[in-house]
Amino acid sequence: MSVSPPRRRSLLKGAAIAAGALSAPMIAKGQTGPISMRWQSTWPSKDIFHEYALDFAKKVNDMTGGDLKIEVLPAGSVVPAFGLLEAVSKGTLDGGHGVLGYHYGKQNALALWNSGPAFGMDANMLLSWHKYGGGKELLAKLYASIGGNVESFLYGPMATQPLGWFKKPITKSADFKGLKFRTNGLAIDLFTAMGAAVNALPGGEIVPAMDRGLLDAAEFNNATSDRILGFPDVSKICMLQSYHQSSETFEIMFNKTKYDALPAKMKSIIAGAVEASSADMSWKAIDRYSKDYIELQTKDKVKFYKTPDSVLQDQLVLWSEILEKKSAENPLFKEIVASQFAFAERAVKWDQDTIVSRRMAANHFFGPKKAAPKKA
To answer: pLDDT at position 376, please?
Structure first.
């Protein structure tokens, strides 16, 4: 699945040159009146992920008092979901909302921000590495290596994603052998190594493919998205917990030529809106996902199973092998892995030593011998 460095550098060749010709009119010095931007997400309009994209746009539009107006279209409105990076880089779109793993085919190291092992970090810790541990600078270097004319902001820590939806429970790693399975990013390499025949489809195409028998099983992201996209209509078994995407984040992307022309004050507002949206998204996710998790069981009759520890352990072993192979092929991949590892080594230890067990509290308050507060 790897692509040689010379080819990667040529994939977006000419994007920066084309940006001026293809993008919306540039912002003139001293321009008055609102600035309009046309964006696209990589998500179907009904998915909560597209809602997150709209939430960000509204924050920016409101915080700028309407001086910047971002319109966000759903996936496929202008380009296919996997074509977002090229479209924004060239200026066909002014910006977009997606995940770095969707750019895997252009530079596989980009997927280290969404579908790598992250060495035990959760998504919020990965964002900490990105902002304070050198990740942001490495991402800029990575985009420069493929001629990407984009300004990227990462936000929105995602919860650990389910192993996926299946016809019958997964009991061992060998169950993946020959399975027609959907995933994306570096998880392609992981599940391929587990024996699956992997197809990297965007979100809106997964359930129709399962319905037609083109896929035997698939993973997407969370209880709300999976329910909205119709997974319970094609499967009643979902396996929880996996290391294939345990620390994913969203990406907000601007065409860099367009972004650089914005007033400094507007850039500051955008930066603030990114961080505000990151917090709001994570709070909304807890509320919505927990509700849909219950409704998947009570209304949709879905059965959830925990992924066996033996499968999780096998994933970690395979991750080590994949990282070694990719690092040998791609110097930038190796540099990013080393940076993540150094940050995770201290951050994960701090986290494990410091955070008290929620499992113990959950068993106490919600277990068989409930110790719920007495009603007034």
So the answer is: 62
The total domain count for the chain is 2
Q: What are phi and psi of 219, to 5 degrees?
A: -125, 150
**Locate tokens 């949206």: which residue?**
277
Which contiguous run of DSSP H or E holds residue 251?
strand 250-255
Report yes or no on 3 lying in a domain. no
HSE (side-chain half, CA atoms, 13 Å) at 282: 19
Same domain, 29 and 150: yes
Range of the domain at 236: 164-245+299-353
pLDDT tens for each residue of 240-271: 999 999 999 999 999 999 999 999 999 999 99
Q: How many CA atoms lie within 13 A of 142 on its CB side?
A: 26
206 and 218 Cβ atoms separated by less than 8 Å: yes
Torsion of CA 357, 360, 364, 367, to 10 degrees: 120
Same domain, 138 and 187: no
CATH number of the domain encompassing residue 73: 3.40.190.170
| Residue 367 CA to its chain's centroid (Å) | 33
Q: What is the pLDDT of residues 88-121, one digit of tens each?
A: 999 999 999 999 999 998 999 999 999 999 999 9
- Degrees, nearest 5: CA angle 245-250-255: 135
